[in-house]
Amino acid sequence: SGFGPFGEHAVNASWIAVQELEKLGLRDDVDLHVYEIPVEYQTVQRLIPALWKKHSPQLVVHVGVSGMATTVTLEKCGHNVGYKGLDNCRFCPGSQCCVEGGPECIDSIIDMDTVCKRVSALELDVTVTISKDAGRYLCDFTYYTSLYQSRGRSAFVHVPPLGKPYTAEQLGRALQAIIEEMLD
């Protein structure tokens, strides 16, 4: 999944990158389903469980844009509390959390360090790094919600804004390599 527009991101690089991935495709034995997710907490709370129920996927990979990122960043975990920023509907969860009573942090079952090393060894023209903080906004909120739903079978990739420094094609190829490594 990628996200729709928000704030200064009139064109969300995450959705553009996911559309590039869709054009490139994955291995023949992989069914790829792509979704654009609105930057809205309540939609995420409904949509993510519905997608898990509808597709029963082996893995869900969410992609978001970070205005601070200059690399493609693999997020290791999602956080439950600390959501204070208003979404596109000017809404913020009153509890400031994803799942009341849920664990503070949920780690992906994907070994992001290994994925990062393997993708970096492919010598794509994109730098891949690791993070443990997806930012306490809709990216982190979506990631935690998906990790909670899937018992850790989710991943999150942050991409920089388009052209800062990567093109849509570079981001699509990076996502393709990352997801194929995750599936391996």
Automatic annotation (TrEMBL):
Q: Where in the cell is it found?
A: Cytoplasm
UniProt keyword terms in alphabetical order: Cytoplasm, Hydrolase, Protease, Thiol protease
State which Enzyme Commission number(s) the record gives.
3.4.19.3
Recorded hits in PROSITE patterns, A to Z, give: PYRASE_CYS, PYRASE_GLU
Per the record, the GO terms for biological process are: proteolysis
The annotated active site, in chain numbering, is: 75, 139
The catalytic activity, as recorded, is: Release of an N-terminal pyroglutamyl group from a polypeptide, the second amino acid generally not being Pro
Kindly give the CDD domains that the UniProt entry links to this protein: Peptidase_C15
Q: Name one Pfam family in it.
A: Peptidase_C15
Gene Ontology CC terms: cytosol
Gene Ontology molecular function: pyroglutamyl-peptidase activity
* Assembly and interaction partners: Monomer.
Q: What does this protein do?
A: Removes 5-oxoproline from various penultimate amino acid residues except L-proline.
Family designation:
Belongs to the peptidase C15 family.
Protein name listed in UniProt: Pyroglutamyl-peptidase I
Its taxonomic path starts at:
Eukaryota, Metazoa, Chordata, Craniata, Vertebrata
